[in-house]
Amino acid sequence: MTDLYGLLPEEMEKLVMDMGYQRYRADQILLPLYYKFPKDISEIKQLPKTMREELIKAGYTIGSTKEIHQVVSKDGETMKLLLGLPDDNSVETVLMQYPSTKLFGIPRSTICVSTQIGCAMGCVFCATGQMGFETNLRAEHIVSQVIHFAEILQKRNQHVTNIVFMGMGEPMANYDEMIKAIRILTHPRGFGIGQRHITISTIGITSGIDKLAEEDLQIGLAISLHAPNDKLRKKLVPTAGPNSVQEIIDAGRRYFKKTGRRVTFEYALMEGVNDSIETAMELANLLKGNGSHVNLIPINPTAGDFKRPSTGRVLKFEQILVDAGINCTVRVEKGTEISAACGQLRTDMMN
Ligand code: SAH
Ligand code: SF4
Prior knowledge:
CATH superfamily of the largest domain: Aldolase class I
Shape: elongated
Number of domains: 2
Number of helices: 11
CATH topology of the largest domain: TIM Barrel
Largest sheet: 10 strands, mixed
Radius of gyration: 21 Å
Structural class: alpha/beta
Distance between the termini: 31 Å
Helix content: 25-40%
CATH class of the largest domain: Alpha Beta
Bound molecules: S-adenosyl-L-homocysteine, iron/sulfur cluster
CATH architecture of the largest domain: Alpha-Beta Barrel
């Protein structure tokens, strides 16, 4: 079975031409795929019936992920979907909405996509890391996470405004499928979202960061740092070995130089672990003068023993960075009560 959501427009053209049809037939598939969200090839009425039948017979399909379950937060701004994959695995994906402002008449609708089921990086504070690695998602599975929400939003006269690769898994550990999904999602004849509306979050695999910098894409990059030195980082990210903190920061600098896109360092704050004044000063020294941006994430509750620091402590940590001239924000928590927040995604905990 080949899901049409996993094909680039160029591949779609090749497919129809190999079947003996004219090139324009590709757009007769692509347009409905990304604007009407059909569930079955038979619903693409623009195509001749014989062509639809031929496609189905040749093993083509659409929508290889099926919605199993949906949860919405009390304020209605966060929605989590559990999607079933053809091999009986399932994956979580989240929509976060931010109320409309004067500037944006419609709410900002950010989709947080997963790239893997589970994750091999084993970060001690992350529910996905604690479930271990199960499998890599294919490009069509990544694309269809967005499609499910695009359809839900279309019914409300809204649309997907941003996509962040911050769900389950480490995007750089599934590089080829992740990039293919991005090319489909940003292609003007595909989903067509602007490259600048996509952000990839990585635990800091420097070879992946360098590769991404060469892709000629204007994708935002977030690097999950969590500690200003290797000793502490290794405790939190047990697989951090191959890349030191300094190497990660250097890779971020190279990415900025090559793409012009600002790099954000994510820092999950854990009480008594990495939230002391000394640690903040060490981080400030490390990043100062770098033009970097830090996003502090007071930890969300997971199965681990880590606690979120008090607001006072978070603000103190932030102040130290700001005083050193570092651009700093504290992440607004979303979806914690439905376990849809950062680091809370794991398929066996769906509620
Ligand atoms: N693997 C990638 C992307 C997915 S995790 C990465 O680690 O960057 C997305 C973000 O959620 C990362 O910044 C990660 O550090 C953060 N995160 C993980 N567990 C968390 C938790 N329990 N509370 C808050 N943030 C968490
Ligand atoms: Fe994997 Fe990211 Fe979770 Fe670490 S924080 S275990 S890299 S998903």
